[in-house]
Amino acid sequence: MSSFAFDLTSTHGFLVADRRGRLVGRVVSPMYGTAPDEPDALAVRSGLFSRRRIVPATAIEEIDGASGVIELSVERDSIRTF
Q: Given this structure, which CATH class describes domain 8-81?
């Protein structure tokens, strides 16, 4: 992960790709856990009827605001579903 913090609250609708560039899905919403005002994960859905995946903030490599893509540092198969 990079040395700066990401603003996960403004990533709704962004595409998420794993470290190989394979599409994981689209951000549905930020998820809050440790602090009530700062999200520490993202809920990502890959299709209309598919399960959501939990993408922790520590797995995010880069957020490109211009193109709306979030690049991860992990493989798609290592991300938990719920």
A: alpha beta
Predicted TM-score (pTM) of the model is: 0.86
Q: Is 31 helix (H, G, I), strand (E, B) or coil?
A: strand
Question: Residue 60, exposed/middle/buried by CB under 10 A (0-12, 13-18, 19+)?
Answer: buried
Q: Hey, where are the domains in the chain?
A: 8-81
Q: Quote the DSSP letter at residue 79.
A: S
Residue 64: strand pairing partners: 69
Question: Residue ranges of the chain with pLDDT lower than 50?
Answer: 1-4
Residue type, 49: F
First-to-last C-alpha distance (Å) of the chain? 24
